[in-house]
Inverse folding.
């Protein structure tokens, strides 16, 4: 299934596109499409007022685009909670199904779903559900790639992507885990982490570390 306009602005939001320009290459990588296809879509998003695009520099969300992205992310995360808590889907399986449901969910249905779920605060991957809390969460967290070596952090969110979620699970990095950043080596794109609960040390790439969000503790 081809990505929709809403998929693009959702990815831009998750990659920090509300406050900085995101290169087309990063968007293409997340959506697994070609950069020229992204460029074509960005021009379409400019026309509807959701994005400001500059060739060779990337795209940044407009205020309208940011609010639209928050609404679709909210619907996506509500469906993830429903699938996880009510239908027994695994935490690593809910993303794909929520992707299908989010685009056909009206605002009225989203409100009823939120009420039915008793107003959850976070999705299974740690993402804030209330749009008013999304900016708060973004402001108080950093990516593990930007974390200062020698300090302790708690994993608070994983970017909502099935492959990324499975990758971090296989590395034994889960929401709520405490880690110490032992070393960051930009020259070889590598971060060394110690998992506090068992002392194990693991290494992940800085590139993938941009999708793992932590809070200082």
């Amino acid at each position: 299934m081809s990505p929709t306009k809403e998929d693009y602005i959702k990815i831009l939001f998750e990659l920090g596109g509300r406050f900085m320009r995101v290169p087309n290459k990063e968007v293409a990588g997340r959506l697994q499409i070609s950069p020229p296809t992204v460029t074509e879509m960005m021009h379409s998003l400019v026309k509807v007022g959701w994005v400001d695009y500059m060739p060779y520099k990337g795209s940044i969300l407009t205020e309208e685009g940011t609010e639209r992205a928050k609404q679709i992310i909210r619907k996506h995360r509500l469906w993830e909670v429903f699938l996880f808590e009510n239908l027994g889907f695994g935490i690593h399986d809910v993303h794909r199904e929520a992707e299908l449901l989010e685009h056909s969910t009206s605002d009225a249905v989203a409100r009823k779903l939120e009420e039915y779920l008793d107003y959850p605060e976070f999705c299974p991957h740690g993402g804030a559900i209330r749009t008013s809390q999304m900016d708060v969460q973004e402001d108080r967290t950093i990516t593990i790639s930007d974390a200062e070596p020698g300090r302790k952090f708690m994993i608070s969110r994983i970017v909502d992507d099935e492959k990324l979620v499975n990758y971090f699970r296989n590395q034994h990095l889960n929401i709520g885990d405490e880690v110490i950043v032992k070393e960051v080596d930009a020259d070889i794109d590598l971060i060394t982490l110690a998992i506090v609960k068992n002392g194990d040390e693991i290494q992940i790439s800085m590139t993938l570390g941009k999708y793992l969000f932590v809070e200082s503790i």
User: Anything to note?
Assistant: The chain has three domains: 5-61, 65-139, 142-216. Residues 5-61 form a domain with the Arc Repressor Mutant, subunit A fold (CATH 1.10.10.10).
